[in-house]
Amino acid sequence: YVEQRLGIEARATVLGHVQRGGSPTLRDRVVASQMGFKAVELLEQNIGNRVVAMQGGKIVDLDINEALDMPRVFDEELYKIAMTISI
Predict the structure, then answer these.
(1) Which residues form the Phosphofructokinase domain (predicted)?
(2) 20 to 30 Å CA-CA from 15: which of 36, 51, 53, 73?
(3) How far is C-alpha 78 from the geometric centre of its chain's CA atoms?
(4) Rounded-to-integer distance, Cα 24 and Cα 50, Å
(5) How many helices (H) and strands (E) does the chain have?
(6) pLDDT in tens, 14-23
């Protein structure tokens, strides 16, 4: 679909579970499906220059420039938890 609509080569890559070294969880699959669905909706509406993201537990689309300008917040507490349980 992407190749036909935009005329560029597109390939699917699943990084999440590959980076962790395990299989995707049900949550990984659901979120990936929701984000992919949102991206296709945007393409169908000829809306470009958007980033699909999760904010407050909801799938949203943001202007790509606004997304790039957002401050990067590092969650120290989440990092400590991940290190403690060795994710």
Answers:
(1) 2-43
(2) 73
(3) 19
(4) 25
(5) 5, 2
(6) 666 556 667 7
